Fold:
Amino acid sequence: MSITEKKNSFSKQSLDVFANDYVERVYAGWLGKVIGVRHGGNIEGWTYERINKAFGEVTGYLHEFKNFAADDDTNGPLFFLRSLEDYTHTSEITPEHMGLTWLNYAPDGHGFYWWGGYGKSTEHTAYLNIKNGIMAPRSGSIEQNGHAVAEQIGGQIFIDVWGLIAPGNPTLAAEYAEKIASVSHDGNGKYGGMFIAACIAEAFVENDIEKIIEAGLAVIPADCEYAEVTRDLIRFYHEHPENWRDCFQFVYENYGYDKYPGNCHIIPNSAVIILSMLYGQGDFSKTINICNMCGWDTDCNVGNVGCILGVMNGINGINQKWITPINDFLCCSSVIGTLNIQDIPWGASYISKLGYKIAGVQAPEKWANLIENKNRVFHFEYPTSTHAFRVECDAREQVTGVIENTTEEAHTGDRSLKVMFDYSNGGNGYRTFVKTYYTPEDFNDSRYDPSFSPILYPGQTIECYVKIPIGEINDVKGRLYVKDRNTNLRYYGDKVQLTEGSWDHLVFDIPSLKGVCIEEAGIELIPVQEERRLGALPSLIAYVDDFRFSGKPNYEIDFENERLEVWNGLHIEVSQFTYLRGIWTLEDGYLSGSYYGEQAEAYTGDLNWENYEFEATVKPMLGNDHYLNYRVQGGIRSYAVGFAPNNQLSLYKNDNGYRKLASSDYVWKVGKEYTLKIEAKGKHYKIFVDDQVALEYTDTENPYLFGQIGFSNVNGSHTHYKGFRVKGL
Structure:
C-alpha cells in the first residue's frame, strides 16, 4: 500500500487524535526531543562509569546554559522534513529527493553534522556521495560504504519527526523513515530509524511501553540484529525487573561498544534506549534520567526517548523543571540563518501542518490559521509555551521579572503570556521581548557552529495585544520597540496609555534604517506611579498575546560597520550571514568572498521574502566570476547574476547545479566598483548595472518565487562587496 493510499488508513484512534490533541502532542514530543538532547548534550560520549563518578544519581539537568547551542540531533529532523514541502508529501517522495534536501540545507563541511571525514563520519560520507552524484539510497548503502559506516547511529537520531507526522500509523511512519534513513544508513542503521519513527507514531494512541516497542519491532525484519537485541532486552527485563543497572551490565557485556566497529554504532545505543523505556515504566523523568546515566551517545538516545515519552504522556507528563530552562528556544545551524532561530511552538506547528496534510484531515479551527501562517506569530496557545520571550528592566539589580504561560487571560484562543515584575518604579522601563538575532555572547560554546540572520528587519511591522489587569498598578504606558545590535540603541513606536482591564492593540512600523542588526523586539511597560512594592505579590503585571511580525524589508548595510563574530579560533562568522562554502570575511571595509573551485556562497535575509529590489556594490578582485544571488532557498536552489567570463553579464539558475538562463555583453574590469541591482517581481527579473537596465528575463519553468539574498563567486575568483540595500516591492 502506498503512502497516498495509507492516508485514508488511519485508525479511528488516529483520527480522534487529529481532531482533539494532535498539535499539543506534537508539541510535547518535539519539546521532549529537545529536552533529551540538552540533557545529554555535554556528556555525549561519556561512559557509565564517568557519569556515575561525576554525578551519581541523575535527577535533573547536569549543566546550565545561557542558551543551548545547535545540535545535529535537532538540525536533521526539521530540515530533512522540508523535503515534503520542497518536493512532495505524497508517495512520490523518494530517497533521492530527501538526499537533495541534505545538499540544500546543510552547509558544506561545517556546522549541522559531525564532519569527521569520508569513511569515518556516516553523514559526511553520505553528503559527499550525494554531492558527487551518488544519489540516495545508494549514498548510504552497505554496498557503497560498508557495514561499519552504514550502521552507525545517525539513522535513528534524525528520525523523530517522521513519527510525529503519522500519529497512530507506525507503518506509514516507518515508510517515510526508511526513505530518509537510507540517504546515509543501511542495515541496522536504517532499521533503527524505522523502529524509532514507528514507536513515536504508536505513542499517540498507546500508553503501554511494551506495546509501543512491539509496534516498532513490527516494521523491521524479525531476524535483524536490532530486533534480536530488543527482544533480548525485553526478556532480561521480565526476568530482572527491579534494577536497571543490572540490565546495563548485561548490555555492556553483550552489546557494548567494544563489540562493534566505528565511532558510534547503533546497536549499543539502541540497547540503552530499550533499557530506559522498559525500566522507566512510562515516567518521563525516570526514563530520560536512566537513559542519560547509561552513557555513550547520550544526547541522541535521550532525545529519542524524550520524544516517545513526550508524545505518550503529553505536556502534563513533563515536569516543569525540564521545560523552564529550555524557554521554548531552539538553535539550529543550517545555511538558512532565519531558520536557525526557532522556537519549539514554531517547529510543532510546522510538523503538525504536514501531518494534517498527509492524512488529508482538516486541522481544527483553533489551530488551522496558526499552523498555516508563514509570518512569525507568537501566540502562546501551547500549554507552558513562552516562545523564548524574556524579561528585563532599567533597574536590573533591584527587580525580579518572570514570565509564564497562563489561561487567566487571552486576546484570542485560550492562553497568553503573563509578565510579572516584583517591583515597579515610575518612569522606569519594564520590558518583555524576544531575541531576533543571536551572537556568540549568548551561548556557552560553539556546539555545531551556528550562525544567524535576523528574523526581523527595518521596514517591517511588529504588533501585539497587551492587557494590564485591574489592580494596584493602573497607570501604565506601553510601547513597542526594537533594539539594534550594532549601536545598542532602541527604536520605539508610539507610547500608548494602556486601558486598565482591557486589551490594547500596539503597532510599530519600523522605519527604514541603515547599518542596523535588529536583535530584540518587544514591549516596554512604563508605570507612572511612584515606587511600589506589594509584599510577595508581583507589583506590575501584564498579559501579552498575538505578538507578530509582518511586512516587507527596507534597509541598507555598509560592511564597514559590520563585524566578525568570533565563537572560537575555527568558527568566525560575518555578522548577519551564513555561508555554504568558501572564505567569507571582512576585509578593508568590504565583505570578501573567495574559494578555490565550485561556488563560494554567503546568504542573509529571510527565506520568505518574495518580491524585492536587491542592490549591492560589487568589486571584482581576481578571477572571472562575481555574482549576487537572490531568491535563495538553500545551497542548491537560487538565482545568481553578475559578471561572467568573456565580458558577459550572466543570469544563472541553481537547481542542484547552475545553468545559464540569459546573458548580455558587458565590458567589466577587475578592481572597479559596480552597482548591481536586481528587481525581482513574480517570475520576471530586471537587472541593472550602474542604474542602467542590462538584462531582463522571465523564468517560466518552475520559478523560485521567494528566498533570501546572497553573494557568490566561482572558479577561484575573489570578490569584494561594499554594501547592499534591500527594499520589498
Q: What stands out?
A: The first strand starts at residue 329 and ends at 331. The mean pLDDT is 95. The first helix runs from residue 3 to 6. The chain has three domains: 3-7+14-338, 389-552, 577-728.
